[in-house]
Known about the structure:
Structural class: alpha+beta
Largest sheet: 5 strands, antiparallel
Order of helices and strands: EEEEEHEHE
Strand content: 15-25%
Number of strands: 7
Shape: globular
Number of domains: 1
Number of helices: 2
Strand order of the largest sheet: 4-3-5-7-6
Amino acid sequence: xxxxxxAAALVLVGSACSDDDESPIVDLEPKSVxxxxxxxxxxxxxxxxxxxxECGVAHSHEIIAIVESESTVYPGFEALEAEAQTACLxxxxxxxxxxxxxxELFVTxxxxxxxxxxxxxxxxxxxxxxxxxxxxxxxxxxxxxR
Length: 146
């Protein structure tokens, strides 16, 4: 599945799946939407396992969508980032119930690396949300209008 990079203002921006030939990718299915995750502050730039937790306990993120890249060949990191931003913003309101620009939540994503794209046929963009004020989420954000 994917890597994760911490950006300014505690906003996470996905930066791809594992580049290590020995590391397995995280394979997600549509039923993974709604899964809650607890990424720690020391999460590295690559994610090969998702830190899944029950949504009823404090967590940092929730998966709101999993979309397949529209590209047929690896488009490069910047193009995948642009595709992820468009796709994840479009998926936000149907899941959360409010426009992302009016929400207290932020949108972020995970995208494939060149290695996982080629080696594992990884095309998944994973859309995530977190709390814009940096506090943990408790419970699902689905239909929360937050």
